[in-house]
Amino acid sequence: MVGAWGAWSPPEEKTKLNGLSQSGSSVGTFLIFTVAGSVADYLGWEAVFYVTGASTLVWVILWFYLAYDTPASHPRIDREEREFIENSLDGAI
Fold first, then answer.
1. Which of 18, 31, 64, 83 has the fewest other C-beta atoms within 10 Å?
2. First vs last C-alpha separation in the chain
3. What is the DSSP annotation of the chain?
4. What's the pTM?
């Protein structure tokens, strides 16, 4: 994600966005530890792996659909937003 912020985030927002994205791993760990016990109780211990695998698959599909290398290559970004990002980077990529 650190590399993605280089192409997507204005310089004054990079630190905040990097911190937010890095905290996602801690949130994910917290969620799986709190949910895994209940999943194992109701569906069996094997289901913990199926649930985490299925949720990861959904996340990857969404990522491939929504994430692009640069604002210029993104087909669904608003022109005004793309220009704002590109102008704020001003050749810093």
1. 64
2. 15
3. -HHHHHHHS-GGGHHHHHHHHHHHHHHHHHHHHHHHHHHHHHH-HHHHHHHHHHHHHHHHHHHHHH--SSGGG-TTS-HHHHHHHHHHHTT--
4. 0.74
Per-residue model confidence as pLDDT tens for the chain (93 residues): 777 888 888 888 888 988 998 898 899 899 999 999 999 999 999 999 999 999 999 999 999 999 999 899 999 999 999 999 989 988 665
Amino acid at 91: G
Per-position b or e across 70-92, b if 16+ CB within 10 A of its CB: bbeebeebeeeeeeebbeebeee
Please state, in angstroms and rounded to a whole number, the distance separating the CA atoms of residues 45 and 68. Answer: 36
Rounded Cα–Cα distance for residues 34 and 68 (Å): 32
